[in-house]
Amino acid sequence: METNPSSAPAMALQLEKQIVAPQNGSVVQRVGDDDSQHGASTLGSPIPFLPEDIWHYIHLCDAARSACISQSFLRSWRCLPNLTLNQMSLCWIPYGQTFSCKVDNILRNHSAIGLKTLTLNLNDDHATFPYVNSWLQVAFTAGIEELTLRLHEKYNFPCSLLSDGVRKSIRYLELKFCAFHPTVEVGPLRSLTTLYLNSVRITGDELECLLSNSLALERLQLIDIKDIVILKIPCLQQLNSLGVMLCQGLEVIECKAPNLSRVNVDKAKIKFSPGEALQMKDLTLRRANCACHARVELPSIMPNLQRLLLRSLNEVVNTPMLPSKFLHLKHLTISMISGSAFSPSYDYFSLVSFLDASPSLETLFLDVSQGRMEHESVFGGGSSAHLRQFPELHRHDRLKSVEIMGFSSAKGLVELTCCIVKKAVSLERLVLNTLRHNSCCSKEYIPPYSPFNKVVLDEAFRAVAAIRSYIQDEVPPEVNLTVVEPCARCYSFCASS
């Protein structure tokens, strides 16, 4: 059901006087707000047979505006347990009122029924600072479950607000642009499952204290935390996801969480306790030279990995051939997306090291989408016509599905693909997508952010030619080969760019 926000007040007035025919055929006459003897349904709605969630949906966009003309809408507005308050959501403010006054009125109208979810985005509005503590005092009832605060770096979040009732109920806490200094006195956050800190001033000891009091924590995300050098994660049994990004001062992460499976780290070195690392089966890792780091470090400390997702920020070091193995690895994803060009010194063919090290591998997904290709092309002439072989690599009898996104005519990439085709005797599916991950033909494309330019289009045609010249005839007939080529839509995007 869709409504026009500008027509909601008129709709409210019309519904107030409307004669409605319910589904059972009876007729219900809507009476005025003052006629309480004809009480409607749970919301005091003028149409009693409408479900409550539909009324919430209808009322949400303009409930605050309509409250001045309809007591029914006012009751609906006050019972909404989820609020998002920012300059955009409160763009319609009555003459003479300020943003602070509007937020103050809304929160006090909700103080009696309690909030489940509150998102408060002040957009660096300094005028609101004197009111924030009182707003949070009103909002922090015993039943609040999710809190998202985007404030200002000068604001100091008052830990005293985390009363015993709040500590029992809150499940999601997101703080951005503020100071947060929890101590032992804060007490246990028994229900907290997600902690998200972005540009928050907090020390390593303070964060460790907070984590030690959050035994139910499942997801921890840290972005741009400058005051932590060593991050110590205690033995949190439920923690399975860790993200640490843009924390320039962070050097080491010491982790004792036994069930951590998804790690997204762009810089710091991670030290796992031996017992915890041995249990790791599912790992997502994001950092510079990620493929090289994973090949060198992970087989020895995480030998039981079954699923590995690598997101490389800048791969310039070739992946080495080593005797260590990923004996249990079944699913491998390597993403090396770049908006410009990869370093031409990086050799795609070195990724064959993962094939050699993973005898149980079943699926391989490689994304090498880039803005332009600067590697030596297989059509470059000279020695380019001769493709390197890897006779030392044993036959691979588990690999069934291989997909390469952003496939180009780079000689090393063509050599890698040929090696996979020849050595993976169990291969059933091979997809070579010559388009970028966010091109106009892909599901990820959101116009107009990634136009399909002529440079990418020309390289896609060279990639198709490389497939036909060097790969297609090598693919066994039982393997389903799919080549994704530029389409008519790509031409139109190219012509308009």
UniProtKB/TrEMBL annotation:
<feature type="domain" description="At1g61320/AtMIF1 LRR">
    <location>
        <begin position="106"/>
        <end position="488"/>
    </location>
</feature>
<protein>
    <recommendedName>
        <fullName>At1g61320/AtMIF1 LRR domain-containing protein</fullName>
    </recommendedName>
</protein>
<dbReference type="Pfam" id="PF23622">
    <property type="entry name" value="LRR_At1g61320_AtMIF1"/>
</dbReference>
<dbReference type="InterPro" id="IPR055357">
    <property type="entry name" value="LRR_At1g61320_AtMIF1"/>
</dbReference>
<dbReference type="InterPro" id="IPR053772">
    <property type="entry name" value="At1g61320/At1g61330-like"/>
</dbReference>
<dbReference type="InterPro" id="IPR032675">
    <property type="entry name" value="LRR_dom_sf"/>
</dbReference>
